[in-house]
Write a structure and sequence with these properties.
P-loop_NTPase, 2 domains, alpha/beta, binds zinc ion, Rossmann fold, disordered C terminus, single chain, two-stranded antiparallel sheet
């Protein structure tokens, strides 16, 4: 920062000297830049090596630029997080804090989820999705949202919601908004999202229309080669009955996979008793 402008007697005297070519100069020697001439400043301090001064300013400029870039990136990630709509309950679920409890099935599921993140560039290019099916409390949602959170941190556009909410959003976009339509509503869940994670797929959802909307979104994403992750309490057969065999098969294309997580739930009382 420059010195504040003052017009004390001394400063005026100094300025007069500078203008008259009578500024007090001396020779200095910089350890980095060698010999230089410095001037006595109005604040009675020597101006120092001019090259060091210039470098200091340049460094400060660079630091400011880095700060700005960091803020822009942080703001962008924050925006991605908001858009992802991941339920609060799952915002802190990561692949790092998933406990396998020495369980082979869980360890396998975790390894597969890690691989999915590591190879997401390929999955993204080929539209490889994932189906996680199995009973309640096996950690499916934790792993799926863990994948979502990891990819959000990498700057991918992710959305992770349950089907009930998806249906609400479609209704809102299709019917409550000006110029809305089913078509427009479906589009909103296709191209703008690098990864769509749908939880509670196949839960006893009511209407045929709702199932059709879900089918259309999954199918549109398939056609655009965009990956989708489905989380379901149904087993593979039930899911096929619900969405159609072809839809489930297609999820496994492009490097996609189905993870069947059918071990006893950690939330069941028997399991708790076993551990106590
Ligand atoms: Zn210097």
């Amino acid at each position: 920062m420059g010195q504040p402008m003052t017009t004390t007697h001394e400063v005026r005297g100094h300025l007069k000297n500078v203008l008259a070519g009578q500024a007090r100069n001396r020779q200095g020697n910089c350890r980095i830049h060698g010999a230089f001439t410095e001037t006595l400043m109005p604040n009675d301090q020597w101006s120092g090596c001019p090259e060091c001064l210039e470098e200091g300013k340049a460094q400060q400029r660079q630091a400011e630029q880095r700060d700005r870039a960091g803020q822009t990136r942080a703001a962008k990630l924050e925006q991605l997080r908001e858009g992802a709509m991941i339920p609060r309950r799952f915002q802190q679920r990561t692949l790092e804090n998933f406990a396998t409890d020495g369980h082979d099935g869980k360890a396998f599921a975790l390894a597969a989820s890690r691989r999915y993140v590591e190879r997401f560039e390929d999955r993204f290019a080929q539209g490889g999705g994932m189906v996680m099916s199995g009973s309640v409390g096996t950690g499916k949602s934790h792993l799926a949202y863990g994948i979502g959170n990891a990819l959000l941190d990498q700057g991918y556009r992710v959305m992770g919601i349950d089907v009930y909410e998806l249906i609400d959003l479609i209704k809102e976009r299709a019917f409550s908004q000006k110029g809305g339509s089913e078509r427009e509503a479906i589009k909103a869940f296709v191209a703008p999202l690098d990864l769509l994670i749908l939880d509670e797929v196949g839960a006893q959802l009511g209407t045929e229309w709702e199932r059709l909307m879900l089918f259309k979104i999954i199918n549109e994403r398939y056609k655009q080669m965009l990956p989708t992750v489905l989380i379901s309490n149904c087993d593979a057969k039930e899911l096929e009955n619900y969405l159609g065999e072809r839809v489930v098969d297609r999820m496994n294309e492009g490097g996609g996979m189905t993870l069947v997580m059918d071990w006893p739930s950690y939330r069941t009382p028997t399991d708790n008793q076993g551990r106590a």
